Amino acid sequence: MTGAMWALASGVGFGLFQAFNSRAVRGADVARSTFAQLLISTVVLAGIALATEDAARLLSAPPWALLNFFMAGFFHFFLGWTMLNASQKRIGAARTTPLLAATPLFATVLAVLALRELPGLPALVGVGLVVVGVAVISGAGSGPHLTSGAHAGLKASMWGLGTALCWAMSPIFIRKGLEGLPSPLLGVTAGLAGSAAAYGLVLFPRLLQGRGTSPEGRPSGREETLFKLAAGVLVGLATWARWIAVDLVLVAVALALTQVSVPVVLLVSPLVGGRRAEQVTARLWQGSALIIAGSSVLLFYR
User: Fold this and answer.
1) Tell me, what's the pLDDT at 74?
2) What whole-number distance in Å separates Cα of residue 181 and Cα of residue 268?
3) Is the pLDDT of residue 149 over 80?
4) Count of alpha carbons within 13 Å of 76, Cβ hemisphere only?
5) Eight-class DSSP state of 101
6) How far apart are CA 52 and CA 18, in angstroms?
């Protein structure tokens, strides 16, 4: 598969993950749900790595490469997934996923700051379309967890936009790490494992206190557990595909193509989460169309 195909596969997988995850975290504790996803994804990818790769290469890898993998995991998993779950719990998958399409926007800005890459006119047009699309989504109205008003819409959108910023930063560390250990599978597994361990240390006092119920006082139940398992497997595989894409093609191209997750979520989340909980409005579709248009411009910009 080409890098572009890996990016598309990552987008589809992540879109399906978003739809399942929104159902899994509804009424659940954000931190515990994120930790569960990290553990499930780590186990899945570690199993694939042991079966297909020489895991001993991790022991001989340069320490700076492992450090970069850990930093990529910190931004993508530790911070990014926490804010993702918080956003999905507050505004649902249908409103969260289009906000994540701001990732190419942030990546373009970071490229200017870190790499001194000044975008040309086509890239600026694409960035502008993404910004307008994000603005449309941010003011898309009130949902079950929102109050009315533009300020409430922007405030609720900050979790999703924070996720996008973290995910725009992680490719910088991915690229650096892969220079020392050219294996996206081992790299993403190391990053996941490090983030899971750090999350476990942070969450350990709460686990000792036996907080096994959601903030609303309801235990997760069998259905929620199944959705968490499915979400953990999907996001692990989708993230692996994303790392491969980042290794094979330009970061901007990889991040733009993964925005196929937007229409996937808008189509699937009402089926999984219910149309009442996941209200896909015309304005959401309009904002998503602008974001995808902007991402397409960034895709074809060289």
Assistant:
1) 94
2) 37
3) no
4) 29
5) T
6) 27
The pLDDT of residue 107:
81
Amino acid at position 200, single letter: G
**Residues 6 or more apart in contact with residue 217 via CB below 8 angstroms:** none
Which distant-in-sequence residues (6+ apart) come within 8 Å of 124 by Cβ? none
Alpha-carbon gap, residue 229 to 233, rounded angstroms: 6
CB 247 within 8 A of CB 174: yes
Q: Is the dihedral of CA 265, 139, 285, 261 positive or negative?
A: negative
Name the average pLDDT for the chain.
80
CA–CA distance, 107 with 76 (Å, rounded to integer): 13
Q: Are 69 and 187 in contact (CB under 8 A)?
A: yes
pLDDT of residue 209: 65
Pick 85 or 275 by higher pLDDT: 85
